[in-house]
Design a protein that fits this description.
This protein has 171 residues and is an all-alpha fold. It has a domain of 115 residues: Cytochrome Bc1 Complex, Chain D, domain 2, CATH 1.10.760. Helix content is 35%, strand content 2%. Strands 1-2 form a two-stranded antiparallel ribbon. α3 packs across α6 and α5 packs across α6. The termini are far apart.
Length: 171
């Protein structure tokens, strides 16, 4: 019989739960950086659509399909831009209101098996590529904090604001 089961059977107090590890200070400070729709909080770095395509093939195509057009992880590009149908195609080009929040989502959640593992340059490159495959122009050859904040998404006006105060960006 396992020792921990024997202890539990004997009425001994449970061992300390093993719920992960204590994060390092660096991890905590990098995870606290929020990116807001207006671009506040975007980090330094840059990337191109060509760099993003290479990275997409290496890191993303298994879940999102060739050029982001399908796969188990969901469609990122293409589809019908009409969002009034019963089951609308909510792709980056048809649904997302801000390119800056796309950066934030990719940085925090992708790749699924290793969130926060991409560098800022890699995230800028992936966003540039995803904007490109969705037919959304970026205002320069390289995407960075200034050019990303200037991107106007096709569905920018498709959402209604709620009456809530937006929190201040961390310093």
């Amino acid at each position: 019989m396992c020792a921990s089961l024997a202890q539990a059977d004997a009425g001994a107090p449970p061992a300390t739960p093993r719920l992960g590890v204590t994060p390092h200070a660096h991890t905590l400070t990098t995870r606290d950086n929020l990116v807001f729709p207006d671009g506040r909080g975007l980090p330094p770095g840059s990337g191109t659509a060509a760099m993003g395509r290479t990275l997409f093939v290496q890191q993303c195509v298994a879940c999102h399909g060739e050029s982001g057009r399908g796969g188990a992880g969901g469609e990122l590009a293409g589809g019908n831009p009409d969002l009034t149908s019963a089951q609308p195609d909510k792709t980056i080009g048809s649904y997302w209101p801000y390119a800056t929040t796309l950066f934030d989502f990719i940085r925090r959640a992708m790749p699924l098996n290793a969130p926060w593992s991409l560098s800022n340059d890699q995230v800028y490159a992936l966003v540039a590529y995803l904007l490109d495959v969705n037919g959304i122009a970026i205002p320069a050859d390289r995407l960075d904090a200034a050019t990303l904040a200037a991107v106007r998404m096709p569905n920018r006006d498709g959402f209604r604001w709620i009456d809530a105060t937006q929190p201040a960006a961390p310093r």
